[in-house]
Write a structure and sequence with these properties.
There is one protein chain. The protein is an alpha/beta fold. The protein folds into four domains: about 280 residues, Up-down Bundle (Formate dehydrogenase/DMSO reductase fold); about 55 residues; about 90 residues, Cytochrome Bc1 Complex, Chain D, domain 2; about 150 residues, Glutaredoxin (3-Layer(aba) Sandwich), CATH 3.40.30.10. Helix content is about 55%, strand content about 5%. Helix 18 links the parallel strand 4 and strand 5. Helix 3 packs across helix 4.
């Protein structure tokens, strides 16, 4: 919080100084009466900068380590954030010096230099916040600069305008109107930049609509948007006044009062922005708390299947009917007398009905992020947990056919069915923690640690795909099945996981090489064909072999081959064939984004399988790279 206050009190004086430098230029004033104020504001900004580096160092350096002069100097010139502060502080000091010189020297070049340095001071404010993170894309880092520069220019100009209106009551109304008109043009440009750059920043830092309510960063951003809406409404009132009021009747007192209200919301907006700049972005937050008892989901309602005459169906029909009513009231001549009230009321009611039709039950954990990554090793642990705790009801295959199922008043869920994908992983975590929706499934909070529950969820995620994964064949399918990650052996310690191979298609080959006779020879030929084809196509090859497989058919090796085989055996199912945890031979083709896209049982030189493999690799190598969402099933 200390950092948030310092960033706020550091940004406000520099913004106002720039506003007081800019406004007189719009109407040809010399701005002499604002020179002392600009100098004082520039000095305050430079002074507060020294407190900012102290607070920043304290927030990063461990609390048990005291911060003396040597430590602070080392932090300033030995860290990225420290170097960024040094640059911004040098600019702030230069601005303060020039602002002081303006008190005794009148010069047009000096005025231009002061305005330029002031603008640079407010543009680089964000450099000591999230903008210094070099892991962010370049467009996001630039968006910080544009967002901060435009936002502080707008706020500083608005504060200066209110000051001018209150202090310039003796000025002719025509001059006040001219200033308001010209400033309005600049403010519109600044606000457009703020909104566009803000959208770019939200895209990178929020990570999803749910995070607006489920994280501290998101809730503060929502509050910031509320203040922005208030600012825009008051700005609209001022703009309408300027365009509709005669020039000789311009009321500076009224304009200043409404402008002051807008400035108050602007200052609140700036404080929230400063707070946001020093906390973890929503996209990187791990502790998510969903405050509402419902969430909106297309996948879990209309995207899955809504039974006719169900409550969800009726809410949707009511919403569509009310849209028709709103249109009829607005356009039918007989209803026009009431349309200003009834049409908006019907539209609002329609919106509420449609929202309800998309609503499903939610919990505080609904958008929780897992503590265990989606890996084969985690799936193997989860499979063991499932076998020990869940098969009595859900059955060994998860199809709801366990020995206790027939005695339960509510049948256990089929965990291989598509409906599993309509729930968030946080929903499943909540049910494992506190018990299922039906009240039949017990809570496992006392039996399973949180990490164990996330391991179990990772197993359930891959289990829920088995209905569809039965039909994976050599013809590439759409991207829906995420390939479980796993550790790889690499003496150079560079490519240590499957995920690090993304960017190039990868063939994962499984085989049991302990067979004898003709079958052993055919399998050896198949593995060699696969290896040579992948090598020729410049793709990756990962092999999980059991037994004595030929060395010239091997690719990168897994650290835990049995865990990987167990995880991938879950999706290695075929129609009308019994499930087996031991994979005799199969080859999964993973695209460059990390999705399972095709499967080959065996390769024979002249049956077309090799041609299919080569063509699929070539196709996937040319596809765009897609970032896999953390909550993808």
């Amino acid at each position: 919080m200390e950092l948030a206050f310092l960033r706020f009190f550091e940004s406000l004086p520099s913004a106002l100084a720039v506003g007081l430098l800019l406004l007189p230029r719009l109407i040809g004033e010399d701005g002499a009466r604002f020179k002392p104020a600009v100098a004082a504001l520039a000095f305050v900004r430079a002074l507060l900068g020294f407190f900012l580096i102290q607070a920043t160092a304290r927030a990063i350096i461990p609390a048990e380590k005291p911060i003396d002069y040597a430590t602070l100097v080392g932090f300033t010139f030995g860290t990225t954030v420290g170097k960024a502060w040094a640059v911004t502080q040098a600019i702030a000091i230069a601005f303060a010096v020039i602002a002081a010189i303006r008190l005794v020297v009148a010069s047009a070049p000096l005025e231009n230099l002061a305005l330029g340095l002031g603008a640079l001071v407010i543009v680089v404010v964000s450099v000591t916040g999230h903008a210094v993170d070099d892991s962010l894309p370049l467009y996001t880092q630039l968006s910080f600069l544009f967002h901060t520069g435009a936002g502080l220019t707008w706020l500083g100009g608005l504060l200066g305008l209110v000051w001018w209106m209150y202090a310039g009551r003796d000025k002719p109304p025509e001059v006040a109107r001219q200033l308001a008109e010209r400033w309005s043009f600049i403010a519109k440009i600044a606000m457009a930049i703020v909104i566009l750059s803000g959208l770019a920043l939200a895209w990178e830092n929020v990570g999803g609509f749910a995070n607006l309510l489920a994280t501290t960063y998101g809730r503060l951003l929502t509050l910031k948007l509320a203040f922005l809406c208030a600012v825009l409404l008051l700005a609209l009132a001022l703009a309408r006044y300027v365009t509709r009021q005669p020039a000789n009747e311009f009321d500076t007192s009224w304009f200043a009062r409404i402008g002051a209200y807008e400035a108050i919301f602007g200052v609140l907006l700036l404080f929230v922005a400063g707070w946001i700049a020093v906390i973890t972005p929503a996209a990187h937050e791990t502790e998510l708390y969903w405050p509402l008892p419902f969430r909106l989901s297309w996948a879990a309602t209309w995207g899955y299947k809504v039974p006719t005459w169900s409550p969800t169906w009726w809410w949707g029909v009511a919403g569509l009917a009310l849209i028709v009513v709103a249109g009829a009231v607005w356009f039918v001549p007989k209803g026009r007398a009431w349309r200003r009230i009834s049409a908006p009321a019907a539209a609002i009611a329609s919106f509420v009905c449609l929202i309800v039709s998309f609503a499903v039950e939610a919990y505080s954990d609904t958008y929780n992020d897992p503590t265990e990554d989606y890996t084969a090793e985690s799936i193997a642990r989860g499979q063991a947990t499932f076998a020990a705790n869940c098969t009595g009801c859900h059955g060994a295959g998860g199809e709801g056919s366990g020995p206790m199922a027939k005695d339960l008043k509510v049948p256990p869920a089929d965990l291989t069915a598509p409906h599993v994908g309509t729930h968030t992983i946080g929903d499943i975590f909540h049910w494992l923690t506190f018990g299922g929706q039906s009240g039949v499934m017990p809570a496992f909070a006392d039996q399973l640690q949180p990490d164990d529950r996330w391991d179990l969820i990772n197993f359930l995620l891959i289990l829920s795909s088995t209905n569809q994964s039965r039909f994976i064949d050599p013809k590439g399918m759409i991207q829906w099945l995420v390939a479980p990650d796993f550790a790889l052996i690499d003496p150079a310690d560079q490519i240590t996981t499957l995920a690090k191979l993304r960017g190039t298609p990868t063939l994962i080959s499984f085989a049991q090489c302990d067979t004898q006779g003709a079958e052993a020879l055919e399998r050896a030929k198949s593995l060699k064909l696969a290896h040579d084809a992948v090598k020729a196509a410049a793709a990756n090859h990962v092999t999980i072999y059991a037994g004595d497989c030929a060395a010239d058919a091997k690719g990168r090796q897994a650290v835990h081959p049995k865990a990987v085989e167990g995880a991938y055996s879950v999706i290695n199912r075929y129609p009308n064939e019994p499930y087996s945890a031991e994979i005799a031979e199969v080859h999964f083709l993973i695209d460059r984004s990390g999705f399972v896209r095709a499967r080959f049982r065996h390769f024979i030189p002249d049956d077309g399988s090799m041609t299919q493999l080569r063509s699929q690799i070539a196709l996937m190598a040319s596809e765009p790279l897609v970032t896999i969402n953390l909550h993808s099933h």
